[in-house]
Amino acid sequence: MTHEPNAIPSRLDPERVPRRDLLGLTALWTAAGTLFFSVVGMMRIPKAAVLSSPSKKFRVALPDTLAPGVAYVPPGRSVALFKDEKGVHAISTICTHLGCIVRPETAGFECPCHGSRYDAAGVVTKGPAPKSLPWLKVVNAGGQFTVDEGATVPPGTKVSA
Amino acid sequence: MKKNKYLLLLSSLGTLILLVGAAVQENFGKDWRKIQATAHSDEGPIPVQLRQIVNGTLRTSDRCVSCHVAMGPGEQSVTGSPLLVQHKKVVHDPAEYGCAICHGGQGQATEKEAAHGEVEFWPEPMLPASRSYAGCGTCHATLHVPNHQTYLRARATFERLDCRTCHRVNDRGGTVRPGGGSLEGPDLSRVGLAGYAADWYPRHLQHVSDAASATAPSPPPSAPPSAWKTAFAPVSGEDQAAVKTYLDLLVGAPQFVEAKSVFNSSGCLGCHKISGVGGDEATDLSRAGERDPGQLPFHEVAGRPTLENWLGEHFRSPSGVVANSRMPALAVSDQDIDWLTFYVLSLRRRELPSTYVPRDRVRATKLGEREYADDGATLFGTFCAGCHGPKGLGRRSPGMPSFPSIASPGFLALASDDFLIATIRQGRPGRRMPGWERDGGLTRDDIAKVVAWLRETSGTQAKPDPKPRRWVETGQGTADKDLGKRLYAASCSGCHGDKGQGIEGPALNNQILLANATDTFLAETISGGREGTSMQGFLAGSSSRRSLSPQEIEAVIAFIRTWEVTRK
Amino acid sequence: MSVKEPPSAPTALQEFVTNLKAAPRRIAETAVRSGTPDTDRTRSTFIFGNVFLHLHAVRTHRWTLRWAATLGLGIASVAAFLLTLITGVLLMFYYKPYTDVAYQSIKDIHFVVPTGRLIRNIHRWAANVMVVTVILHMARAFYTAAYRKPREFNWLIGMGLLVVTLGLSFTGYLLPWDQLAYWAITIGANIAQSPREVTDALGLTDVFDPGGLQKLLLLGSDAVGAEALIRFYLLHVMILPLALAALLSVHFWRVRKDGGLAKPADVDQRLGTPTVPTYPVFTMAPNKTYQLAAIVRGRTPAVGRGPENTVPSMPHLFYAELGVFMLTVLVCVALSVWSDAPLKELANPLVPENPAKAPWYFLGLQELVAFSAFAGGIVVPSIVLIGLGLIPYLDRSDVGTGLWCGGPGGWPLVRRSIAVGLGIALAVEAFIIRFGWLREWIPGIPQLVITVVNPGTVITLLYGAWSVWMVRRFSSARAGALALFTCFLCGFVVLTIIGTYFRGPNWGFYWSPADWPKH
User: Do B161 and B240 sit in the same domain of this protein?
Assistant: First the structure.
């Protein structure tokens, strides 16, 4: 069918192919980009930038009466410290199964939640725990020891007193 | 529609630019990030992240360690920028206490000005670095601090006796043992807190005799001879007492203690209260160090608008900074004004969780122990010197009635101990002298000590008075009250007020005065005057005042006594 | 001879693989069923095939798309609301509505929460922008007489939205728990208690105390404290937003059912020919592009008339709305980047702010409240609300609908009313600033007299008198409404400006904050 310019098209005519709307597309994509950028920015909010729990590094002074093989647990921390003639080491007391706090026993650790058992070096001897208890980094700073709960060291690492 | 597309495009672009700018600013532009980027520890560069010290009991989250990284727990080895230095060794571990509880400021902030509290709407700016030890006052109330003179003498004695030869105190002194190892004597910087052996002197002497005697184990040949043989000499009892005073005050904050000793020489507690002790003429100072500089007037204060500067000006010229102030300007040296400023800055006694209330504060507030030493000189310095002058010779300040001289020999010769004690105990109700036993918290013992000190410094005892307390009415001839009234109006009312209410001179109608002053006291004072004041003797008279005969003086006394309300 | 076997049907496994491979494309196709909106049909399905979009009509009238028709204020209000909603939800991750930790949580949001400072600033600015746009939108609806039949009820819904918006802003004001918040809400609660002014004067308070009840319901206690905070939090994050969303849905629905936005009766002549060729919609044409669920009585896009002057909503209305939305976002983000949301010292019940100021939109009222809490806080706002609510029911003519300042009087009347409104407000303010009011001249005067005779009631009466005069002059309720609305709008502006910039400690008048007396 012929097509007269300036005539109001009738609904019965086939559709005219519209010209590509560069301005509109640019505008829309810019808007979409801005909104996408802002959504990504907003998604950063739930991830806290700083945790309100106490610092992972803490200083501890071992009591003089601490016998070798006896655990010292600083109040409020999930760490067991030991001192013997080779030095001082720290073992995390967070059970590797589901996170309960293990109890230092005479030779090793025992978890009250599901019965995992560890030996004196933190190696799993019994129960559902998948890994041994990690040894935590200890630094000797002039008589006082600083334990870093966020850093692990190979088992057997001891820091001389 | 085209307009709308342009609108959409331009607004989106504008928003995008702003958001990107904000993102860049937050992720790259922050000062703490820049500082941490230059920092490194023994193990290499440190992770760049916000750091904070959290104390759940004190409810603080101090982010100072985001910039001052090396002061954080376990981060001592971090270096890089000039900010990254370790915290000085202090009594309390910053890793537990955080920073703001001692230093003030806004611990939650992460930008410098906000963190230092130097922004509007943060009422507690950080203490200036030179006065950091004023922060001890947030929790502590050091006990038994003497006046400044006593403190200086105690410290000088300690220095003179060369105790620092073996002992380290406040980062000075101490020698290493011959043969190596530790210092000869323990570090005494905190023995006021930790305690020390009460029999230190006999034990020192024991060491000396051990070193000298043949029964002592002989030192290895290569070692130098025992220092005890020559270093320690006997110490007099007076010096021992001074050393004890000094040791008891070694709490790891020497400036704090000295400032308090200056305070205890300035008599501020004569009008002000701290933690419930003191006079009630003026504001409670317990938290004066926490005042918000944003609420204070600074038009009379030179320099920056800080609380420090305001306090200094307050001491120099109180009515310039506090409207209608009745505080006399302190005529003391600049050094003393600095000390007083220091001490007032330390008055930040906020409510604390029970696990953090120190022993000294419990003893001061709950167990009634004193923050000032209880010798007469310190008591006078703490409570009386502010009004009556450092030597008790009275004080005059422009625009206000003068404070009487209580240590002049003339006065003390007339005033019996009973008179002094009663006056101090009951004060002058309605006037500025508080009743120290009832309201001020002093015991009779304290008051007696003050009186004893007054007598001792002036060297004057009370003249015994053979006459009865009241002899005017019953004496030879009845005294004429009407004559007394006329004479009073003519000669006395100018200074003492027409109703005896007191203007320049003391209030003569005060019931406590009338109850305790004997007629001899009144007669002698009127006759002979009070040296050092404008009260001249009326017996002799002068070119400006007529003289009064003894009978006229008795008439005046009789008139004055009519103001006395006798309880039946 | 080989029998040609028909091609075997695909096995189940082959079908499975084919379907799996086609799945992504099919997911896209089933999610967006309408296809690219390049024909009128697809443009229509784009709108009504989407649950969020189908609140819009498929076609929009060209008249209402013009900028001058609405200034985009309605969309700007919705945009501001969406901004506050989203930023508000994000803030809820960190804000703690308990008096001992609220202030700290705001400080944390400002200093350590990632993007927290910007989000909080946007929240505050968008809230202020929303109050402004809502008031301007109401003014636009009034001046274009868009409240007339059949839109009367939508006007009332709009007023409900105004009240809920102010309520949202007011409840949010308390949450930072700083000095600004605490004392502003103390004032607000005491205004709620102000009926006591009247019941006290009449000696009725013991038996009839609506004021006390209002304050108790608001605060949950007799002073602003932890109970008030949690109540305001509940109102702010749940009750009022839900109320707003519900009212908004009704508001938009009503716009649809009322036949779109208000237009003048001779709109077709005013418009002229369209510049963009569009398919005319003949309602008698076949293949109408949307389905009718049922035959219903009521106003719908015109049935049985000639070609409409409408254009497809997609893309015309789409771009207009998006444009306004992004402009609002730009304004709010720009304000947020430039200026921080205020946060003063921690709330201290023992130290009143001086001056203690209500949020800015209530400062005009606070100006009046300085004389009589009841008159300024309850009477005048009630008169205003009732007056606004009655407008569509008192002005029932249809002259000038859809045109700015339409109706008898027109722009000249509005111009004169601006002068009268500003003049009366400024004159009364100047008077009270210079001479004080009744209590300064007659110290023992009973409060009840002041409750009746105070600047608020005086201004209201004077405005009312002007409005009545205009009614009689033009024999038209619309003229009176134009006069009254304009006067109140001007009065609101004058009082708010004075309350914001020229009132200092003890509510004294100061030309500048530099003149405020020092402590």
Answer: yes
Rounded distance between C-alpha atoms, residue C172 and residue C164, angstroms: 12
Which range of B300-304, C89-93, C196-200 scores highest in mean pLDDT? It is C89-93
Number of domains making up chain B: 6
Q: In this model, does residue C289 exceed pLDDT 50?
A: no
- Sequence-distant (6+) residues with CB within 8 A of C507 are C355, C370
Of B465, B454, B308, whose CA–CA distance to B389 is shortest?
A: B454
Residue B191 in tokens: 């023995």
On whether the CB atoms of residues C261 and C61 are closer than 8 A, the answer is: yes
Per-residue pLDDT tens digits for B354-388: 999 999 999 988 888 888 888 899 999 999 998 88
Q: Which of A27, A42, B14, A23 is nearest to C322 (CA)?
A: A27
Q: Do C345 and B121 touch (CB under 8 A)?
A: yes
**Stated pTM of the model:** 0.85
- Domain carrying residue B9: 2-30
**A123 interfaces chain B, CB cutoff of 8 Å:** no
- Judgement on whether residues B459 and B485 belong to the same structural domain of the protein: no
Quick: pLDDT tens for C481-511. 999 999 999 999 999 999 999 999 888 899 9
Instruction: Evaluate if residue C304 carries a pLDDT over 60.
Output: no
pLDDT digit string (tens) for C391-414? 999 989 888 888 999 889 889 999
Question: Among C104-118, C310-324, C505-519, whose mean pLDDT is lowest?
Answer: C505-519
**A80-139 pLDDT, tens per residue?**
999 888 889 999 999 999 989 999 988 889 999 999 999 988 899 988 999 999 999 998
Residue A50 touches partner B, C-beta closer than 8 Å: yes
- Just give the CATH number of C49-263+316-353: 1.20.810.10
Chain A residues whose CB is inside 8 A of the C114 CB are 44-45, 47, 49
B100 with B69, same domain: the answer is yes
Of B91, B126, B161, the position where a domain reaches its end is B126
User: What is the percent of chain A with per-residue pLDDT over 90, rounded to a whole number?
Assistant: 37
> Does residue B171 lie within any of the structural domains?
yes
pLDDT at A35 over 90: yes
Mean pLDDT over each residue of chain B, to the nearest integer: 87
**Are B243 and B200 contained in the same domain?**
yes
Looking at the predicted structure, is the pLDDT value of residue C281 above 60? Answer: no
Residue B373 counted as domain residue: no
**A148 touches B at CB < 8 Å:** yes
| A–C interface: beta-carbon pairs under 8 A | 46
Q: At what angle do helices B148-160 and B237-248 cross, to 10 degrees?
A: 110
Element (H, E) at A118: strand A117-118
Is the CB of B103 inside 8 Å of chain A's CB atoms? no
Report yes or no: B122 at the C interface, CB cutoff 8 Å: yes
| Domain definitions of chain A by residue range | 57-153
Strand ranges inside C38-83, DSSP E: 59-61
Q: For residue C4, what pLDDT is reported?
A: 63
- Predicted ipTM of the assembly: 0.86
How far is the alpha carbon of A149 from chain C, nearest alpha carbon, in Å?
A: 23
**CA contacts within 13 A on the Cβ side of C277:** 13
Residue of C454, A8, A12, C332 whose CA lies nearest to B19: C332
Chain B residues with CB-CB distance to A40 below 8 A: none
Alpha-carbon distance of C119 to C110, in angstroms, equals 9
Kindly determine whether residue B73 and residue A27, on different chains, have CB atoms separated by under 8 Å: no
Domain A57-153 has CATH 2.102.10.10: yes
CATH number of the domain residue B408 falls in: 1.10.760.10
Chain B contact partners (≥3 CB pairs within 8 A): A, C
C-alpha distance from A136 to closest chain B C-alpha (Å): 14
Could you give the CA distance from residue C87 to residue C118 in angstroms, rounded to a whole number?
9
* Distance in angstroms (rounded) separating the CA atoms of residues C356 and C369: 13
Record: contact B9-A27, CB cut-off 8 A: yes
